[in-house]
């Protein structure tokens, strides 16, 4: 392989020598160090410690015609930053050359001085002895009193890391160009103003001289001019010439060629002076500009002065400061931009590089970004996506609005097939009141609605249908709420039950038990179960069945989203829309259940493809009506909730949940032993999307650090951290209960890093609630901080919590207990190893982000792996598909036990997000798992 | 300058270089600081073109600018500083290497510069490091020769009592020419054959219906894994340009856009030379089915290299980064020492002087089999082919994979930074690191370490304490933890 002659000479039998330094004395200055870091302590961080300044800073210098190069200001303006670094010397070094080398002044053959609008020069240089390297941006400002009317300045970004400067050259250049443009624009305005003032002075001087000359003329009747008169005449001529020169300069500065703004927003307000503009009346279209211009042009307060004939250009004059050379607003903006640059490039190069690579890679992952990425970044990316979205729909993409907005992946697939089972289970929103069963419930609920009653109904309904070990998933989205709330009557979501569930229902009526929850604990120091966790509600269900049965014995309820026409959902959708080949790519199935894609108004399903195997039958609903009554918020609440933390009104007025709520009845469909029940409560219009800031994002570095630190503490302090994190990752709401708000908030913030997001808005995290929880809270929030209070209201909150405790995980901070399903996977231990040696919160946060990115990749693969979700017909085919999926999850993705559920949940969210009508506004899902919970204690 | 200095002349010596393709380079110059006259241009190299790109006057003007201000030069002993200019008024970019040296009896400041049009800025920036590294090394050699020449001249003057003005200081120019021309050729070849910033996955192996369709599964796994373990630096050789380029593009998928722009596809008909410093390069074998890989240049590459032969499906890799750097430095020092000892111009001809250095015996067996298996690439390849080809699904999945790698690399850097208080304490807990960051497979650790090395140079050496561990020693260290 290596056959070059230069290696032949090395073919020797000698051993690899240990000490090759016996060469003759080559001076070290002509050699290279054997170890790149040998001279600086041999570590990758030490090269930055050689400099005399503590961190990067920006220096503005000027080549003064009076004193030569001099530093003007630094950003940040803190002497601690540049320390003992010699700014004077460095200014001398960076300003010692006129890199622009353009002629300004009287060019040969020109009658008047000419202004050259020179372009900025950019230079990277360094002082290796001082360990200082700089990106230097040279620019020229205009000053009427300066030599040649120009003042050379430069802005330098000074760093101890040479590679940082070169690797970030283009970014630095772009940012400094913005600052430079801003400064120069302000300077041109100031210069023009200065010229106009000067012209007024000259005009006034001319008038005075003219008058004096006239007086002399009148006084002189000898017929010849006196020497004084001649002097005056010369002076007048000189002023006349000066006026012409200054008018020419003004014309030049106003005729500054309008260049491309190069994306500089800073100078967006700039309206350049144009040649055809009247000289005195500023007639710009921009009122602000006019005002600014007036400051210089039509300032009535300005009183013209008489200009002496002698030139003022001498060394005793005081040159204008940088601030005086520039319009104040622009100067302020420039400083702000420079501060922005300083912040932008602050820190170690490796973090800058990685964040840039991160951003570039995340841009390619719109499908999965929303799950765990920062909102601020997601928002940025959303903007970029909007800007860069192709105008023409790709051939590969279905003509769906949602998919058009979502550039990747471009899958040739019917949107219908991507419809999540959460949405797509053919659950009809039954607004009619004809249903007898509804009427019965309605009788108790109409009039003044009591959410508590409503919840009672929920439990009452459920208790008769849930068999041992079966699990129920109730997923809800806001769409249903909003639609329901539009109706004055109690809406209900009706889901047809499959015969299979009817069978199970028939044989598995459960005995209601007072102490219905069996508590198991793996913790050694198991203690008595607090009363809070005991199921005091009489209708609680005894769950003695093993969690292992949850896969096959689960009953999943899905309450569908709100189709405008219920009939369409169950009939038209099934027949009309043919599925495309890749319909199978997006699962459209719940665990173990039949795949039942959503019949959205725009998208229908093909029965022929076998995706919908069990079309909903209205008649069955009557027979097998199984009702879960949800207390739904009205539309006003829904919209209010979207304004802070995603839901600000809610935050501000937690008690609203108890007020003016419409009860809605939901008839649940049961397809098989494992059926999902999803309630879709989606906002019907895009304007209800969360629009304001939220406390969980944008995540600053500080926030990340704190969250990571607290999460690290949590996993080290609590041996049951794994099941708690599992709850969050699998979509089961975790309630953190505690008396002290600060503690609860802290832990909620810490745990929020594990909470998958619904969309590119706020995370479904409620940091602090003091009022009783409502079922809709579980629909919105996946992590809730709940106040434990001794007041009656607090008792109510605990009572409500105990009511829902079987569907949620509860972490009691005061008693150090956790009640949640068992977790036996391998994924969470990698994410949260209590014996980890990671020391810092920020490092742990990075580690979590990297593991979660791996998890997202698995969920993505599972979601879009086409052969896994091929359309199936018949129960055997369904079983085969389920088996194929299970096998894939276990063998290809290496998932074991409960890890499967995590990936399935994330895949579900991906599907929802991908098929959403309004990307980024995915509806929160309400999911209740009837799986046995265990009590963990420290 | 002293009396030994040749008198300045308005006519600057110029070498015109005929290039086969388009040259993005306008000119290269060698200038010096004259103590009386200031900056002076000594030599100009320019591509031979029909159209005059820059007049000699303009080149001289620009080259003079590169030394302006260098009277204030404050550099460490032996430093070769890099200055980079973007002069919009002139529409050019200039890269200057400034150094001090003894020439003809005087210590002065010199500048070797290359000039490109400003429109080539984004083309040039990814190649900046390659150009600078190569020019830096030739300056190191030239500087030694300048010094030696001064001594010889001085001896001759003393012995003969005459001055041989015409001979003095000339040798540096041929020496510089020996590297300036290859740099011009490199830039020219990159202009026509560089890998595009965005790669269509359809042009790669990852678009196959199934793994193993166009190349053997194990070979692909080895190639990608080793490619990542050697910091994304690979040489792909083969007899079919199409086949070579497909692998080149595939490997480039795992690079950043800037790194792709520093990679080169294989020429269809005749082969390029191997170029030190490129990330991935495709090279065509000759009619005899062999390709000459110059040992010296492979050693001078900033990162270790993976050698991939698509004809016989072999993958070989160089030792890890820290060991490669150590070997490279030793080689460089030996080469410079040999120059220092050389007695005649013939002795210092490139690639021959090293023969004289008997004290240095490099390990020729630098390419070894890929020993460390990884789980990251394996899992990726096992999974990516489950996704339907022809869509953007695989690109998204690839981006996710790369994101995970980068995040792991950053976490690793931060982990070490925390553990050692930014290098103040030695790093002793490699075992903990591997467990905590889920990098227990050695191949995984190598991949993440290689990635981390690129964004935090010197990390590898720092972790393993003594930077000159051989791979075997390193493995021992790893195993003992």
Layout of helices and strands, plus pairs?
The complex is a heterodimer of chains A (938) and B (481).
Chain A: H1 5-8, E1 57-64, E2 68-75, H2 79-82, H3 87-94, E3 121-127, E4 132-142, E5 150-159, H4 162-167, H5 169-219, H6 227-254, H7 287-296, H8 322-325, H9 328-344, H10 349-363, H11 366-372, H12 375-388, H13 401-405, H14 415-418, H15 421-424, E6 428-430, H16 436-445, H17 451-463, E7 472-475, H18 478-486, E8 492-494, H19 499-507, H20 550-553, E9 555-558, H21 566-576, H22 618-624, E10 627-632, H23 635-640, H24 648-652, E11 662-667, E12 676-678, H25 701-717, H26 721-729, E13 734-738, H27 741-751, E14 765-769, H28 775-780, E15 783-787, H29 792-804, E16 809-812, E17 817-820, H30 827-831, H31 841-864, H32 874-892, H33 899-915, E18 934-937
Parallel strand pairs in A: 7-9, 7-12, 8-11, 13-15, 13-16, 14-15
Antiparallel strand pairs in A: 1-2, 1-5, 3-4, 4-5, 6-8, 10-11, 16-17, 17-18
Helix pairs in contact in A: 5-6, 5-9, 11-31, 25-27, 25-31, 31-33
Chain B: E1 13-17, E2 27-34, E3 38-47, H1 56-67, E4 80-87, E5 92-103, E6 106-117, H2 121-124, H3 128-160, H4 172-193, H5 217-229, E7 234-238, H6 241-252, H7 257-260, E8 280-284, H8 295-300, E9 306-309, E10 314-317, H9 321-341, E11 368-369, H10 376-384, H11 393-420, H12 430-436, H13 442-455, H14 459-463, H15 471-480
Parallel strand pairs in B: 1-3, 7-8, 7-9
Antiparallel strand pairs in B: 2-3, 2-6, 4-5, 5-6, 9-10, 10-11
Helix pairs in contact in B: 3-4, 5-13, 11-13
GO molecular function, one term (chain B): GTPase activator activity
Protein name (chain B): Guanine nucleotide exchange C9orf72
Organism (chain B): Camelus dromedarius (Dromedary)
């Amino acid at each position: 392989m290596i056959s070059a002659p230069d290696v032949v000479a090395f073919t020797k039998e000698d051993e690899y020598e240990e000490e090759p330094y016996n060469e003759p004395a080559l001076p070290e200055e002509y050699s290279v160090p054997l170890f790149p870091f040998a001279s600086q302590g041999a570590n990758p961080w030490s090269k930055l410690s050689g400099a005399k300044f503590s961190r990067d800073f920006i220096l503005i210098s000027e080549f003064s015609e009076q004193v030569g190069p001099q530093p003007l200001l630094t950003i940040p303006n803190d002497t601690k930053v540049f320390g003992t670094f010699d700014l004077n010397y460095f200014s001398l070094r960076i300003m010692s050359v006129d890199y622009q080398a353009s002629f300004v002044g009287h060019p040969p053959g020109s009658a008047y001085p000419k202004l050259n609008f020179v372009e900025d020069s950019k230079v990277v240089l360094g002082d290796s002895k001082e360990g200082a390297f700089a990106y230097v941006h040279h620019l020229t400002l205009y000053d009427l009193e300066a030599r040649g009317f120009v003042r050379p300045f430069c802005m330098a970004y000074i760093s101890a890391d040479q590679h940082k400067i070169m690797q970030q050259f283009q970014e630095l250049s772009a940012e400094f160009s913005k600052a430079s443009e801003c400064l120069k624009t302000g300077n041109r305005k100031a210069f023009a103003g200065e010229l106009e003032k000067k012209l007024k002075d000259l005009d006034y001087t001319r008038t005075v001289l003219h008058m004096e000359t006239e007086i002399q003329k009148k006084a002189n009747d000898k017929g010849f001019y006196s020497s004084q008169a001649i002097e005056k005449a010369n002076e007048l001529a000189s002023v006349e010439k000066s006026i012409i020169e200054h008018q020419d300069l003004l014309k030049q500065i106003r005729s500054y060629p309008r260049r491309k703004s190069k994306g500089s927003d800073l100078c967006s307000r700039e309206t350049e002076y144009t040649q055809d503009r009247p000289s005195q009346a500023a007639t710009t279209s921009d009122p602000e500009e006019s005002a600014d211009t007036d400051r210089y042009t039509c300032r009535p307060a300005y009183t013209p002065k008489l200009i002496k004939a002698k030139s003022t250009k001498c060394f005793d004059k005081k040159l204008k400061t940088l601030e005086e050379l520039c319009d104040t607003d622009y100067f302020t903006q420039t400083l702000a931009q420079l501060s922005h640059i300083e912040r932008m490039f602050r820190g170690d190069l490796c973090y800058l590089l990685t964040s840039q690579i991160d951003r570039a890679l995340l841009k390619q992952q719109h499908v999965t970004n929303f799950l765990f990425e920062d909102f601020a970044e997601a928002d940025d990316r959303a903007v970029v996506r909007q800007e860069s979205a192709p105008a023409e729909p790709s051939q590969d993409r279905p003509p769906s609005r949602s998919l058009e907005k979502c550039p990747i992946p471009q899958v040739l697939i019917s949107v219908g097939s991507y419809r999540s089972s959460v949405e797509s289970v053919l659950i009809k929103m039954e607004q009619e009141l004809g249903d007898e069963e509804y009427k019965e419930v309605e009788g108790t609920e109409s009039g003044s609605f009591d959410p508590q009653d409503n919840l009672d109904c929920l439990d009452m309904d459920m208790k008769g249908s849930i068999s041992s070990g079966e699990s129920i998933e109730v997923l809800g989205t806001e769409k249903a709420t909003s639609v329901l709330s539009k109706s004055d009557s109690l809406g209900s979501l009706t889901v047809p039950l499959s015969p299979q569930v009817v069978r199970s229902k028939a044989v598995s009526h459960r005995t209601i038990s007072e102490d219905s929850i069996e508590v198991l604990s793996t913790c050694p120091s198991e203690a008595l179960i607090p009363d809070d966790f005991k199921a005091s509600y009489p209708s609680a269900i005894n769950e003695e069945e093993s969690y292992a049965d949850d896969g096959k014995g689960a009953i999943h309820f899905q309450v569908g989203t709100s189709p405008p026409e219920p009939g369409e959902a169950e009939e038209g959708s099934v027949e009309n829309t043919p599925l495309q080949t890749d319909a199978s790519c997006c699962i459209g199935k719940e665990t173990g259940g039949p795949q039942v894609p959503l019949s959205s108004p725009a998208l229908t399903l093909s029965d022929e493809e076998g995706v919908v195997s069990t079309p909903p039958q209205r008649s069955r609903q009557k027979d097998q009506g199984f009702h879960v009554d949800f207390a739904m918020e009205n539309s006003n609440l829904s919209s209010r909730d979207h304004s802070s933390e995603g839901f600000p009104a809610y935050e501000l007025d937690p008690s609203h949940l108890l007020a003016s709520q419409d009860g809605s009845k939901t008839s649940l469909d049961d397809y098989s032993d494992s059926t999902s029940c999803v309630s879709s409560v989606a906002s019907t219009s895009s304007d209800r999307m969360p629009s304001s800031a939220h406390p969980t994002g944008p995540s600053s570095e500080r926030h990340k650090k704190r969250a990571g630190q607290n999460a690290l503490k949590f996993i080290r302090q609590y041996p049951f951290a794994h099941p708690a994190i599992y709850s969050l990752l699998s979509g089961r709401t975790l309630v953190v209960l505690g008396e002290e708000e600060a503690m609860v908030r802290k832990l909620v913030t810490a745990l929020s890093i594990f909470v998958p997001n619904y969309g590119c808005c706020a995370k479904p995290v409620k940091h602090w609630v003091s009022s009783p929880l409502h079922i809709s809270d579980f629909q919105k929030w996946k992590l809730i901080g709940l106040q434990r209070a001794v007041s009656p209201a607090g008792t109510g909150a605990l009572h409500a919590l105990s009511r829902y405790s079987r569907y949620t995980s509860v972490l009691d901070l005061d008693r150090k207990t956790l009640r949640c399903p068992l977790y036996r996977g391998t994924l969470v231990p990698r994410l949260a190893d209590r014996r980890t040696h990671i020391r810092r919160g920020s490092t742990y946060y990075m580690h979590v982000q990297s593991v979660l990115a791996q998890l997202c990749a698995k969920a993505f693969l599972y979601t879009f792996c086409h052969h896994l979700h091929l359309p199936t017909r018949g129960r055997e085919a369904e079983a085969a598909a389920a088996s194929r999926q299970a096998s894939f999850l276990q063998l290809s993705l290496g998932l074991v036990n409960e890890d499967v559920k995590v990936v399935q949940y994330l895949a579900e969210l991906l599907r929802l997000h991908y098929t959403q009508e309004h990307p980024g506004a995915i509806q929160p899902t309400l999911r209740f798992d009837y799986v046995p919970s265990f009590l963990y204690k420290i | 300058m002293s009396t030994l200095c040749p008198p300045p002349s308005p006519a600057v010596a110029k070498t015109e270089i005929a290039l086969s393709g388009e040259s993005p380079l306008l000119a290269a110059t060698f200038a010096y600081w004259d103590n009386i006259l200031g900056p002076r241009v000594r030599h100009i190299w320019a591509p031979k073109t029909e159209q005059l790109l820059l007049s000699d006057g303009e080149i001289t003007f620009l080259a003079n600018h590169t030394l302006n201000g260098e009277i204030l030069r404050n550099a460490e002993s032996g430093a070769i500083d890099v200055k980079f200019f973007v002069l919009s008024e002139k529409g050019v970019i200039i890269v200057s290497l400034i150094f001090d040296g003894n020439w003809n009896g005087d210590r002065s400041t010199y500048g070797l510069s290359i000039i490109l049009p400003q429109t080539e800025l984004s083309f040039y920036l990814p190649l900046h490091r390659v150009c600078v590294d190569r020019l830096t090394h030739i300056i190191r050699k030239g500087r030694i020769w300048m010094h030696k020449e001064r001594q010889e001249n001085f001896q001759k003057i003393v012995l003969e009592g005459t001055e041989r003005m015409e001979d003095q200081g000339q040798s540096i120019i041929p020496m510089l020419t020996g590297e300036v021309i290859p740099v011009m050729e490199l830039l020219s070849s990159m202009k026509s054959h560089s890998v595009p910033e965005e790669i269509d996955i359809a042009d790669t192996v990852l678009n196959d219906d199934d793994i193993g369709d166009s190349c053997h599964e194990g070979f692909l796994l080895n190639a990608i894994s080793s490619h990542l373990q050697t910091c994304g630096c690979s040489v792909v050789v083969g007899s079919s340009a199409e086949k070579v380029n497909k692998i080149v593009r595939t490997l480039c998928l795992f690079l950043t856009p800037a790194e792709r722009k520093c990679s080169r596809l294989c020429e269809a008909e005749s082969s390029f030379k191997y170029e030190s410093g490129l990330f991935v390069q495709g090279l065509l074998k000759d009619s005899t089915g062999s390709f000459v890989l110059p040992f010296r240049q492979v050693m001078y590459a900033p990162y270790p290299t993976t050698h991939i032969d698509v004809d016989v499906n072999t993958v070989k890799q160089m030792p890890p980064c820290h060991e490669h750097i150590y070997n490279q430095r030793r080689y460089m020092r030996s080469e410079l020492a040999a120059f220092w000892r050389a007695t005649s111009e013939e002795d210092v001809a490139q690639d021959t002087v090293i023969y004289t250095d008997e004290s240095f015996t490099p390990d020729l067996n630098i390419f070894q089999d890929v020993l460390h298996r990884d789980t990251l690439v394996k899992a990726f390849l096992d999974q990516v082919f489950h996704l339907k080809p022809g869509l953007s699904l695989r690109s998204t999945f690839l981006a996710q994979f790369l994101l995970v790698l980068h995040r792991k690399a950053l976490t690793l850097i931060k982990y070490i930074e925390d553990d050692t208080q930014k290098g103040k304490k030695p790093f002793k807990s490699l075992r903990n690191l591997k467990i905590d960051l889920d990098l227990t497979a050695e191949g995984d650790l190598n991949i993440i370490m290689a990635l981390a090395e690129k964004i935090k140079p010197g990390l590898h050496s720092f972790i393993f304490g003594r930077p000159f561990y051989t791979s075997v020693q390193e493995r021992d260290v790893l195993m003992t933890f």
